[in-house]
Amino acid sequence: MSTSPKRKNEEPASLADDVSKRARIDDNSDNDKAEEIPFLNPNAAPDSHIDHKAAIKYWSSTEATVSGVLGGYPQVSRIDLQGSSNFLAKLRRQSKHFPQGKKLQKAVDCGAGIGRITTGFLSKVAKQVDIVEPVKSFTDQVKDGENVGEIYNVGLEAWNPHNDGLGPYDLIWNQWCLSQLTDIQLVEYLQRLPPVLSEGGWIVVKENLSNHHLNVDVFDETDSSVTRTDKKFRQLFEDAGMRLVAMEVQRGMPQGLYAVRAYALQPKQVKGKK
Ligand SMILES: C[S@@+](CC[C@H](N)C(=O)[O-])C[C@H]1O[C@@H](n2cnc3c(N)ncnc32)[C@H](O)[C@@H]1O
After folding, report:
1. Is the pLDDT of residue 268 over 70?
2. What pLDDT band is residue 271 in, cutting at 50, 70 and 90?
3. For residue 178, how far is its CA from the centre of ligand 1 (angstroms)?
4. Is the distance from the beta carbon of residue 156 to the nearest atom of ligand 1 less than 6 Å?
5. How close is the Cα of 2 to the center of ligand 1, in Å?
6. If we measure between CA atoms, which residue out of 98, 96, 78, 76 comes closest to residue 88?
7. More confident residue, 32 or 260
């Protein structure tokens, strides 16, 4: 299973299994040809196993379809997009900067895959949607789409929108992709966003939540990602200097899949104010 919607009762291999997957050397074979399987230290933090190369290898070999980016659950897309649209509408009802009825100027779809969210939601609410996604064969599917602006084929850990002179964005949407970043990378990424966020704009994080019985994050070697607990997300948002302004559990997810939660964040420190 992968970053995308996934079954909670099909958790990745246990740590004991991970240990058994250490480098194997076949006594009867030439050592140079021995199969190298990485050793995963069971005591290490789950996010320390994240390997961006392995993740990109996985996603590059995944079919560029809704089913591909949603881990074989394309039926989830409709309810997800509807839930996202309702969530933004609620945010806008309470906003003096972006009341409903007018399109946002600019949004950005981060870890966008084939642009499922851009096509089905963001391009309907924003005049321009920029895209950040490391796999080019995915963004090739959306590059000619309505209201699609700049496309950056880079991982979020390396995306520095302020240095690139981007923004301001009224909405920065991150869905089913932040699990690809380590905890530190996620905090640093969030810390880079305030300079490119419009006043009153939102950073939305919509991700699976770990249901591990020990309330810990879970590493998934399929796509080299980590599924975090709600507690961990809140801690990382705090560490990044973000204020949680709204939160909603995605309703109507098929039974047996991880719960999905949307968080809306704003920087605690408002631009220009000390
Ligand atoms: C489960 S798909 C979700 C795509 C899209 N957000 C959606 O909901 O349809 C995960 C996406 O994260 C991308 N990804 C992988 N590593 C990433 C990274 N380091 N930074 C940003 N995105 C990454 C993958 O290429 C893939 O497109």
Report:
1. yes
2. low
3. 8
4. yes
5. 10
6. 98
7. 260
Contact (CB, 8 A) for 64 and 137: yes
In tens, the pLDDT along 232-246 reads 999 999 999 999 999
Residue 6 located in a structural domain: no
Note whether residue 3 is domain-resident: no
When divided into structural domains, the chain yields a total of 1
Domain that holds residue 201: 15-267
pLDDT in tens, 98-121: 999 999 999 999 999 999 999 999
pLDDT band at residue 41 using 50, 70 and 90 as cut-offs = confident
- Residues contacting 130, CB < 8 A, separation 6+: 106, 107, 108, 109, 149, 150, 151, 152, 166, 169
Beta bridge partners of 254: none
CA diameter of the chain: 71
- Our mutation pick for probing the ligand 1 site, out of 67, 114, 138, 177, counting the most ligand atoms within 8 A of Cβ, is 177
Q: Is the CB of 116 under 6 A from ligand 1?
A: yes
Confirm whether 8 is domain-assigned.
no
Plot region of 72 (φ>0 → left; ψ -120 to 50 → alpha; else → beta): left
In a domain, 257, yes or no: yes
The CATH number linked to 206 is: 3.40.50.150
